[in-house]
Design brief:
Elements: H1 3-32, H2 35-41, H3 43-73, H4 96-108
Helix pairs in contact: 1-2, 1-3
Amino acid sequence: MKRDRLTYMTEMTAACAAIAAFVTVYVVGFMQAGLLLTLLFAWIPAAALAWFTARALQATARTFLDVSQTAADFPGFGGDDDALEPIVLRDSRRSYRAGRAHWLDDERY
């Protein structure tokens, strides 16, 4: 499954779980506190629980997606080793001529 589609599916799953948590709070409120108290005050814990549920599921899914993507990048964890490039060591110092030419250009101006 493509990463964009998988991200979309996890977002929709988190939204459905948030709606289910919201409805569950209202159902339990109707059974425990009655109609009036539930209609007046149940939206506060319902909204908090729905927000927390959605954020927790999104964070969990994002973590698993990032870990699976990172693991696929390494050859020992199922990634392809064709993407590996050899390390090239270069001298970080400039040559004497390049350094001297730079100084000479400064003296000319």
